[in-house]
Design brief:
This protein has 328 residues and is of the alpha/beta class. The protein has eleven helices and twelve strands. Helix 1 runs parallel beside helix 11, helix 5 packs parallel to helix 6 and helix 9 packs antiparallel against helix 10. The mean pLDDT is 96. Bound molecules: 1,4-dihydronicotinamide adenine dinucleotide (NAI) and magnesium ion. One of its GO terms (molecular function) is NAD binding.
């Protein structure tokens, strides 16, 4: 039995989580779901957005499924990522038939280093009008993220890893990152490898996104590039993510609690469901993950969706369609 901490959170977080659990329950996974509280409502009730009890449950679990928080998102999810030491942030983007987007047949996953670079908070005011920020890049973290990207490519049957950096200008920091990626690439002759400068890479992403498969990059570039690829395929309702650590992993949709539609029963459950298939892949349930993803794809292609994707179904109705397609 694997313990899964389930944190629905606020607003549509609750709605998409219950939808997602229905889909998982169509299978017989050896999972024990342990529900835990966090978010705005929890803060109102207990004074804490992320109570110790919730953190404890997460630390006793193999994975965390997180819905969304509201205004307390930073106190909840950002803290959770730190506490659970998740070093890799995974953001896949895929175009779906039947969804309006810039490009068809795009299927890219960004593997973003999540612990260092410019996001360490090492910023100072040297004197009035002069500030500095320190960029930390280590061999250890670079190697860990590069290996993760190649292992993920292998596991998911992906063909190519592309590293994005700016080693021509940031010779030391990006130079180290690039060199480590190139070295790790030699251990994976079954996976193609290339590296681009981040600026050129962004241009290629927009002109010719099909040349990318797995992208591995440092924290700040990864933050920007993962939003860029989300834009290529259009839409928050379809954007899942994973935060992977040595011991723990958190799976969550990119979207928030969507107060404008919360309570109406029309939230798109796809991003949450796709986050859960990232969890299944993480545990090695690859064929089950594929079955859910294919069923979701078919449901969307048939136009049986929530209003944000142009359909007229409620969350529950869309889930029923997905489960029907799984069982077919
Ligand atoms: P949001 O992602 O909640 O909503 C942005 C827009 O996208 C809204 O119009 C919403 O209706 C729509 N949308 C989002 N997810 C959808 C879904 N599954 N189905 C259909 N439509 C969907 O972002 P916003 O409005 O900037 O923030 C709202 C609250 O969520 C804030 O309190 C913010 O702090 C929080 N937030 C939490 C996050 C988290 O828990 N990871 C991430 C982003 C925001
Ligand atoms: Mg961002």
């Amino acid at each position: 039995m694997k313990k899964i901490a389930v944190i629905p959170g606020d607003g549509i977080g609750k709605e998409v989580m219950s939808a997602c659990l229905k889909v998982l329950e169509a299978f017989d996974f050896p999972f024990e779901y342990v529900f835990a509280e966090a978010g705005d409502e929890t803060k109102e009730k207990t004074g804490e957005a992320l109570p110790d009890e919730t953190l404890q449950i997460c630390k006793e679990s193999s994975a965390v499924l997180f819905g969304a928080a509201g205004e307390t998102a930073a106190d909840v999810i950002v803290r959770l990522r730190l506490e659970l030491e998740t070093f890799a942030n995974l953001r896949p983007a895929k175009s779906y038939k039947g969804v309006k987007c810039l490009f068809d047949n795009v299927d890219i996953v960004v593997v973003r280093e999540n612990t260092e670079c410019l996001y360490k908070g090492l910023e100072f005011e040297v004197k009035k009008g002069v500030t500095e920020g320190i960029r930390i890049i280590t061999e250890k973290a670079s190697e860990r993220i590069a290996r993760y990207a190649f292992e993920l490519a292998r596991r998911d049957g992906r063909k190519r890893v592309t590293a994005l950096h700016k080693a021509n200008v940031m010779k030391k920091t990006c130079g180290l990152f690039r060199d480590v990626c190139r070295r790790v690439a030699r251990d994976y002759d079954d996976i193609e490898f290339s590296d681009y400068y981040i600026d050129a890479g962004c241009m290629y992403l927009v002109l010719d996104p099909w040349r990318f498969d797995v992208i591995v990059t440092t924290n700040m570039f990864g933050d920007i590039v993962s939003d860029l690829i989300a834009g290529l395929v259009g839409g928050l309702g379809l954007a899942p993510s994973a935060n992977i650590g040595e011991k723990y992993a958190i799976f969550e949709p990119v979207h928030g609690s969507a107060p404008d539609i919360a309570g109406k029963g029309i939230a798109n459950p796809s991003a949450m469901i796709l986050s859960s298939t990232l969890m299944l892949r993480h545990f090695g349930y690859i064929s089950e993950a594929e079955r859910i993803e294919k069923a979701l794809e078919k449901t969307i292609a048939e136009g049986k969706t929530t209003p944000d994707l142009g359909g007229n179904l409620k969350t529950d109705e869309m889930v029923e369609e997905i489960i029907k397609n799984i069982e077919e």
